[in-house]
Amino acid sequence: MLKKVLITAIAAGFVGSFVFGINSAPEQTSPKQASVAQDVAVQTVVAKTAGADLSPKHQDISRLLAAKLNFKVSSVSDSAIPGLFEVVTDQGIFYVNADASNLIQGSLYQVSDAGVIDLTEQAMGKVRQQAIQVLASETINYPAENEKYSITVFTDISCGYCRKLHNEVAELNQLGVSVKYLAFPRGGLNSPTYQDMASIWCAEDKVQAMDNAKRGGKVVPEMCTNTVAKQYELGRRLGVTGTPAIVFDNGQMQPGYVPAAQLVNILEQMDKS
Description:
Elements: E1 3-7, H1 9-12, E2 19-21, H2 31-49, H3 56-69, E3 73-78, E4 85-89, E5 92-96, E6 102-104, E7 108-112, E8 115-118, H4 119-134, E9 140-142, E10 149-155, H5 160-166, H6 169-174, E11 177-183, H7 192-202, H8 206-214, H9 228-237, E12 245-248, E13 253-255, H10 260-272
Parallel strand pairs: 10-11
Antiparallel strand pairs: 1-7, 2-6, 3-4, 4-5, 5-6, 7-8, 9-11, 10-12, 12-13
């Protein structure tokens, strides 16, 4: 069976902007400052990877990326290309050589007679699963009475297609799909929408506040300690660029609005695969 591993056109440009030589020190940084920053970064990575059964080579890559780029590395593994390692960081997934002198950002595909597999998306799916679990207690939930599936949706109350999807939440519930909302104010953390979404997450009845906002109602200002900013930053790190962004239980992400019936069909197909 023919097997090849391809990198997307964006990532394949080994002489282009996505391949970085990372031997130079940051500008405007004194040796003492750089040393302190490197020590802190290395300690962070060691703490996060302790007990993760990383090989010595993988641990070296973690330390090098922390020292050179201040990356927080959560995992390092061999990629499908010999000599190239897959690194999951707080900045996304990268591919790096053994001495961390070159870095590639892009999608890695495996091509065989059976078809094409996006290996990067597979890895990103696992990252999304784990990351969303951290904020599982912060979602606004619309549970199905007889749940078969659940989806997590990054939403924006000012988004027309988000409102369109929200209008079908009752139908999704009837079809056995629970809906969980995380906030993603597209205008960023200084936008009026962010303030409104923070008020919704602070409301005594969050579901009622969300329903009202999705109908175009005026949001009642509320103040409390909330995680809307964390939800937004999480979405950015997971590759959310617009709303709605639907994340399935397997970590796969579906960008944009999908009608309820089609969404259930996607879930059923995933269940069979």
